[in-house]
Specification:
Aminoglycoside 3'-phosphotransferase, Chain: A, domain 2; about 35% helix; 11 helices; Phosphorylase Kinase, domain 1; five-stranded antiparallel beta sheet; about 350 residues; single chain; alpha+beta
Length: about 350
């Protein structure tokens, strides 16, 4: 399925909905809507959980972005649109990179599930490889990477009480809950073609540090959730996909994001999992990322090995959960066909570091 110049694809049949019904809801509920012909709807291919669509009325100013759960989901807590809306609405005044929410529908009769609409942050979203002519200057690439690091660090310095999101978290013990929770999820999603990861789970359980702080964390910080302005000085203009945002230990969030930070000198098997252009000349190493982040937040990073292993294992669990659904035929997205092999690579890499 070919990708358009705006990064979208034709909506997959399994993810389609009634565009006319959506149009009628927009006219009634979204401020500034003027009617006219129904919009065109295309799907953003990234993401493996909640689904994202471009809703276009024919001009850039009229573009909206729609988020909804996948079809046939069962656990509401795993795809909570209301939670995403609350996080973004409360965080936006304190963190201007968050898109503005324009409407939230709780009636599943409209398109088959609840959904929300938000402004479209216009810019470039980088995935595995950059477009021709983009980020060919190592100095510009490093500047962009520093902007990304600083934005994550700045999010981690926000006080959840001031933002009004302190109730997102469950208080101290975040590290322990994450270790036990991701271990349980891995066991629940086991298939016969992936390792047991018992050594990794035992090591994480035995070596977990205390929480370093309780801060707002994104939960899925990587380039394909970031909107960039690459004209002139590279800068970050938007942060997307707040589905996994919560209050917890910021170093756990950092470890999770750095599991995606595959660099040019990594081993070939890990290189195959790269989904963002962190191998470009000028990109910082993972060690440089951590050092800059620590300098900006003042948080201690001496025990970094634990967070690295956790990040790799957590990513392995996410990939395995999708692989489990693919094996059962619950999703037919061909992008998931190699996920079982990816789980093996991630678990082996985590094991090599304990």
């Amino acid at each position: 399925m070919s990708e358009g110049s705006d990064g979208t694809i034709r909506t997959r049949d399994e993810d389609a909905f009634d565009v006319g019904a959506l149009h009628a809801w927009i006219i009634e509920h979204v401020p500034g809507s003027t009617g006219g012909a129904p919009p065109t709807v295309r799907q953003f291919p990234g993401g493996a959980s909640n689904l994202t669509y471009l809703v276009s009325y024919g001009d850039a100013a009229g573009d909206l972005v729609l988020r909804r759960p996948p079809m046939g989901h069962k656990a509401a807590s795993a795809h909570d649109m209301g939670r995403e809306v609350t996080v973004q609405r409360r965080l936006r005044p304190h963190y201007g990179l968050v898109p503005d929410i324009l409407g939230y529908c709780t009636d599943p009769a409209v398109i088959g599930s609840e959904f929300y609409l938000m402004e479209r942050k216009r810019g470039t979203i980088l995935r595995r490889d950059v477009p021709a002519g983009v980020l060919r200057d190592p100095d510009l690439t490093r500047t962009l990477a520093h902007t990304v690091i600083d934005a994550q660090a700045d999010l981690h310095t926000l006080d959840p009480v001031v933002v009004g999101l302190d109730t997102l978290g469950r208080g101290p013990g975040y590290v322990g809950r994450q270790v036990s929770g991701w271990s349980r999820r891995y066991r629940d999603a086991m298939t016969d073609d992936v390792p047991t990861a018992d050594d990794v789970m035992r090591w994480l359980d035995a070596n977990q540090p205390a929480d370093v702080a309780q801060r707002l964390i994104h939960g899925d910080w990587r380039f394909d959730n970031l909107v960039l302005d690459l004209d002139g000085d590279a800068r970050l203009v938007g942060v997307l996909d707040w589905e996994m945002a919560t209050v917890g230990d910021p170093l756990m969030d950092l470890g999770a994001s750095l599991a995606y930070w595959v660099t040019a000198d990594d081993d070939p098997a890990f290189q195959l999992l790269r989904r963002q252009p962190t191998d470009l000349p000028g990109m910082p190493t993972r060690e440089e990322y951590v050092e800059r982040y620590a300098g900006r937040t003042g948080l201690p990073v001496e025990d970094w090995r634990f967070y690295e292993v956790f990040g790799l294992f957590r990513l392995a669990v996410i990939v395995q959960q999708i692989w489990f659904r693919f094996r059962r035929g619950e999703t037919t997205n061909p992008a998931f066909a190699g996920f079982g092999a990816g789980v093996n690579v991630l678990v082996d890499r985590a094991s090599s570091r304990i």
